[in-house]
Amino acid sequence: MGAVAGSTVENVIYSAVDTQPSFEFVKKLDLPENRGCDKCGISKLPFRSKHCRDCNRCVRKYDHHCFWVGGCVGELNHRKFYGFIFLQTLIFVWDLHFALSSYFSRFEDFKRDRKQANHVGSVWIFFVIFCVIFLMLTGGLAFYHSFLLCTGQ
After folding, report:
1. Each residue of 101-153: pLDDT tens digit?
2. I want to staple 49 with a disulfide (CB 3.0 to 4.6 A). Which of 44, 67, 79, 150 is the partner?
3. Which residues have C-beta within 8 Å of that of residue 63, sequence separation ≥ 6?
4. Are the C-beta atoms of 54 and 65 separated by less than 8 Å?
5. What's the CA gap between 145 and 153, in Å, rounded?
6. Per the database record, which ranges form the Palmitoyltransferase DHHC domain (predicted)?
7. What is the largest CA-CA distance in the chain?
8. Which DSSP category does 57 fall into?
9. Rounded Cα–Cα distance for residues 137 and 5 (Å)
10. Residue pLDDT, tens place only, 44-80
């Protein structure tokens, strides 16, 4: 199960990285109602387009510049980015479930051997705290992007 989930996340992140966020390379017209980019001299349609200072490009339906994707999240790769964060959230839920169930299934063994229990308990606590923190971060991001997706923003 873990290998399948890991390879699925790996495929989704590679497709999000490889897909360009959609750049608009149409030269700006001299019409007053045309909203163009002063930095790169191109028109930006639709209105959610923005110039990214990190990529030095204009991106259609700009969402954000993502460190994990290694570029901008825009019109063409937003769906793949959403799939990536959703799968990451599911993996942290699965990891937390695995950590809790494995600890409590060995609880009787740990009562007999205190030295092993202290070592395993400290590693287990670190892993659970790690999972909870990253579950809150990725879960919050997945929830926020789900809200944006449902409201059409």
Report:
1. 877 777 666 666 666 666 667 778 888 899 999 999 999 999 998 898 888 77
2. 44
3. 72, 73, 74, 78, 81
4. yes
5. 9
6. 34-153
7. 81
8. E
9. 19
10. 556 677 888 888 888 888 888 888 778 888 888 888 8
Which string of DSSP letters, residue by residue, matches 62-98? Answer: --EEETTTTEEE-TTTHHHHHHHHHHHHHHHHHHHHH
Given its phi and psi angles, is residue 66 left (phi above 0), alpha (psi -120 to 50 degrees) or beta? Answer: beta
Provide the annotated active-site residues: 66
Q: Quick check: 69 and 54 in contact, CB under 8 A? A: no
Q: What are the C-alpha distances in Å from 66 to residues 52, 62, 87?
A: 11, 11, 17
Residue type, 18: D
Instruction: Determine the residue type at 14.
Output: Y
This model's pTM is above 0.85:
no
